[in-house]
Hints:
The chain is mainly alpha-helical. It contains five helices and no strands.
Amino acid sequence: MAKSDGCDYFKRASTFWIVFVILGMGYYTCIVFAPQAIPFEQLGPFGSFCRHLVDNYAGIMYKGWWASWAIHVAEAYIALRVCSNKGISDAATRCLWVVQTFLFGFASLGLLIKYDPKRPKQH
């Protein structure tokens, strides 16, 4: 097996975080843009809480939705900078890190930050 110098290091975020972020951001999107499509009464106390937020804080929820995506964009930019700092120079690998971090946020960025290119892997 060929040794890699770390310029193409990539690790996929865990399935748990991928599912959690997709469902969370999807639900938040529905609450902000299509609250009539959510059966709040069938969700128990969580549904009552979400209905309260929709009824009383719709403007803040809308701004929060944009803020959450702005944070994901900032994290993606940070991932690009961290790739540079850690010597990940392959363009396709950098693109994978940026896209994954944009979609899944710190679940991806945390993996990149933990990567230590100077420490050899123990097998």
